[in-house]
């Protein structure tokens, strides 16, 4: 198998470090064509759908893509912002703020980049760009706090597939999960307390995590257990009793049984049982996206109200909350131990020299 061409090497240059924040992905636009292209890439991943490839090909191309693309595009249209997809906007902002937070902590030789597992900017594209910039140590940090083979495992597949085509592979570190990290749990706690302080507290806190097929749990995927550990730790931080909250799972797809209880019918049943107000948060999503803004804040809200509920509160994701940026920095620091993350005066001088050389090369290329 041919390898990619290596960038020019400058002897004596500073070895650079990078951390790549990787999120799921999003269509480029809320259009049928863009959504179809995104869904095709997403649903073609064998980590996401574990159905024999030949059978799934016919289902995907003859049923799913022709009929679901338009419906999904309409949903994306409802949550799209002037700056684009909320997931992309929040991920980009988180990366920039994480860069600033690490620099404030003295880690001035870490470059923070961001990528999408599906869609743009693609993970392979970002990794190739970092290599061209001289980065030789890379930490991969998924935006998923809880590990699942369907999410984090798929990121590892993409990372290894890319480097299978690279001759000079950088040093790699992989952040598997942080579902029980104090910085993450404390950021969730602060987000909920701030909402309660501003809006009062509901009768029940619903913690809705993204669902996966039940068979993944039976086959050894730790996702279900990690979601419940997150919920338990968060409840402890909030001093909630077991009756004060419930863990549910959303976004069920297809006819197979998924992790239960399902969010929408559970919330509707709470309303039928006489609860007037519920508060709903999605701890597994660190950025607001289609699944939180449309599914939870619109669809599930309608089901709650149709069942007799009167006061439905969606608590936004962590997004750019200062506590979460600080938590991300703490997680990053723990996985960067042993790497030189602070530049000496001589290294800063080398950085300036390399930048000047790069600028001269760019001017020469422009002149040509």
From TrEMBL:
Q: In which pathway does it act?
A: Porphyrin-containing compound metabolism; protoheme biosynthesis; protoheme from protoporphyrin-IX: step 1/1
- Tree of life domain: Bacteria
Q: Where do the annotations place Fe(2+) binding?
A: 210, 291
Might you give the EC number(s) for this enzyme?
A: 4.98.1.1
For this protein, the record's InterPro entries field holds: Ferrochelatase, Ferrochelatase_AS, Ferrochelatase_C, Ferrochelatase_N
Its catalytic activity? Answer: Fe-coproporphyrin III + 2 H(+) = coproporphyrin III + Fe(2+); heme b + 2 H(+) = protoporphyrin IX + Fe(2+)
Keyword terms of this UniProt record: Cytoplasm, Heme biosynthesis, Iron, Lyase, Metal-binding, Porphyrin biosynthesis
Q: Does the keyword Glycosyltransferase apply?
A: no
Q: Cite a single Pfam family from the UniProt record.
A: Ferrochelatase
Annotated GO molecular function terms are: lyase activity
Biased-composition ranges, Basic and acidic residues, are 348-368
Location in or out of the cell: Cytoplasm
Q: Which region ranges are annotated with the description Disordered?
A: 345-368
| NCBIfam families in alphabetical order | hemH
Q: Its family?
A: Belongs to the ferrochelatase family.
PANTHER family from the entry? Answer: FERROCHELATASE, FERROCHELATASE, MITOCHONDRIAL
Its biological purpose is as follows: Catalyzes the ferrous insertion into protoporphyrin IX.
Task: From the Swiss-Prot or TrEMBL record, give the protein name.
Answer: Ferrochelatase
């Amino acid at each position: 198998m041919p390898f990619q061409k290596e960038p020019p090497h400058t002897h004596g240059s500073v070895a650079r470090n990078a951390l790549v924040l990787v999120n799921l992905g999003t269509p480029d636009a809320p259009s049928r064509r863009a959504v179809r292209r995104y869904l095709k890439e997403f649903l073609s991943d064998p980590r996401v759908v574990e159905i024999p490839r030949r059978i799934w090909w016919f289902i995907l191309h003859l049923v799913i893509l022709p009929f679901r693309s338009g419906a999904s595009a309409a949903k994306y249209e409802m949550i799209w912002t002037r700056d684009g997809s909320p997931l992309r906007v929040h991920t980009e902002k988180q990366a920039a703020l994480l860069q600033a937070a690490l620099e404030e902590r003295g880690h001035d030789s870490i470059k923070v980049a961001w990528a999408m597992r599906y869609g743009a900017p693609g993970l392979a594209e970002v990794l190739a760009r970092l290599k061209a910039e001289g980065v030789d140590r890379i930490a991969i940090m998924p935006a998923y706090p809880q590990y699942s083979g369907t999410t984090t495992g798929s990121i590892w597949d993409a990372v290894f597939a890319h480097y299978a085509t690279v001759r000079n592979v950088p040093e790699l570190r992989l952040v598997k999960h942080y579902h029980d990290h104090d910085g993450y749990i404390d950021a969730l706690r602060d987000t909920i307390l701030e909402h309660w302080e501003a809006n009062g507290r509901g009768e029940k806190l619903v913690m809705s995590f993204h669902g996966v097929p039940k068979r993944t749990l039976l086959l050894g995927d730790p996702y279900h257990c990690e979601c419940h550990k997150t919920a338990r730790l968060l409840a402890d931080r909030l001093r909630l009793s077991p009756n004060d909250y419930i863990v549910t799972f959303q976004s069920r797809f297809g006819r197979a049984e998924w992790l239960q209880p399902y969010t929408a019918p559970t919330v509707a049943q709470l309303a039928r049982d006489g609860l007037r107000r519920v508060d709903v948060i999605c701890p597994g999503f660190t950025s607001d996206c289609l699944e939180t803004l449309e599914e939870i804040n619109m669809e599930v809200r309608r089901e709650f109200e149709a069942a007799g509920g009167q006061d439905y509160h969606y608590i936004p994701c962590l997004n750019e909350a200062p506590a979460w940026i600080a938590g991300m920095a703490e997680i990053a620091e723990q996985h960067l131990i042993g790497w030189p993350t602070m530049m000496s005066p001589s290294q800063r001088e080398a950085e300036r020299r390399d930048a000047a050389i790069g600028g001269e090369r760019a001017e020469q290329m422009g002149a040509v």
